[in-house]
Design a protein that fits this description.
8-stranded parallel barrel; alpha/beta; TIM Barrel
């Protein structure tokens, strides 16, 4: 099981502190960017600042934002290696409901990522029917299942996400499936059992007893 520690931070100082704890024990970091529109809360997310202190890490940015196409170039310029955008942000409301528009948006963002040598990931919320992913299965090779409500760290794992993982593994057998939210040793085992390849964890890692970040990451990897 691959494990990516998550920086779910309200400000830049939190992000800096967590990165210091990850020095030498993690290559990848996952950065949650919440805009208080797609989510109830807002987190730190400044692509211009990232290169100043994020060197040495591969960066996966989780864009929990309503209009990801407006910010994706900034994060690519800031050094993101992977960018996750949400199905719900592509399909819901206004002009996005026009036939073909969500597909065109995803293709455009995928192409932008490819030009920058990065990978586009398609995310889905726990409560969204996974069948809505069907039109996009051929466009991306990595999916992110959000197993909590978008935004806040420390939430309880939502078991409905297990059905989403099972569906994806069946319908996209060669895809990589990443699960974010409510991850601990028990839930990591549950998502692995139904087909997940990767877990993302914040509270379990940075809230580890004695501050043992490396031990928490190792324990998850061995599930």
């Amino acid at each position: 099981m691959d494990v990516i520690p998550s920086l779910n931070c309200p400000d830049v100082e939190c992000a800096r502190e967590r990165l210091r704890a990850l020095q030498g024990v993690a290559q990848w970091v996952h950065l949650d960017v919440a805009d208080a529109r797609f989510t109830f809360n807002k987190t730190w997310g400044d692509p211009l600042s990232w290169p100043l202190f994020g060197k040495g890490f591969q960066l996966e940015v989780h864009l929990m934002v309503e209009e990801p196409e407006q910010v994706i170039e900034g994060w690519l310029n800031g050094g993101a290696t992977r960018l996750a955008v949400h199905l719900e942000a592509l399909e819901d409301a206004g002009f996005r409901a026009q036939p073909g528009k969500p597909l065109a948006l995803l293709q455009s963002m995928r192409d932008a990522c490819a030009r920058a040598g990065a990978e586009l990931v398609l995310g889905i919320n726990a409560g969204t029917a996974p069948e809505r992913l069907a039109p996009y299965l051929s466009l991306v090779e990595r999916f992110l299942v959000l197993a909590v409500h978008p935004g806040l760290a420390g939430q309880k794992f939502l078991p409905v996400s297990l059905y989403t993982i099972e569906w994806l593994r069946r319908e996209a057998p060669h895809a990589t499936i990443e699960v974010d939210g409510g991850i601990n040793l028990e839930t990591a085992g549950q998502v692995k059992a139904v087909g997940a390849d990767t877990v993302v964890a914040a509270s379990f890692v940075f809230g580890a007893k004695g501050g043992d970040v490396a031990g928490a990451l190792k324990a998850l990897a061995q599930v």
